[in-house]
Amino acid sequence: MYSNTRSILVHDIMSHPVVTAQPDESIKSIAVKMQKHGVGSVVVVNASEQPLGIITKGDIVRRLVTKKRLMLRMMLVTKAKNAMTSPILTIDRKRRLEDAARFMMESKVKRLCVVSEEKKLIGIITDNDIMRHSSELIGVLNEIIDTGYVKEAGEIGIKM
User: 105: domain range?
Assistant: First the structure.
């Protein structure tokens, strides 16, 4: 399952395929997709499958349900492009899991879209994915400590 290198890579544990939506889809349609697929977020993509933004259950609650308007009407007329969090943070599929964890922590996000070299959406990695694989990650970090191999802080930057 994991790559032959000593580091676990993002593509080793990412979830795929990702539930996606188009920018003009209604929030109601997106909420139905979340329920149907049992996910907490939907990635909004363009025609080239490049991620534009993300809509989470929390976004729907914060931006729509708490407003003092008729909720059903808002869900029918509000489009994904108007409710999504954007720009979305992405990470290359070949990055190390520890880089993804650090990037998520520094950016204060719970999800990163995993993209190909062409910047197309190929997966998603969440804080829960990282927690599920934390024992492997600790093993990798212990190996790095034992061998004395530590990257300089400037080598870690991965913002895209």
Answer: 10-147
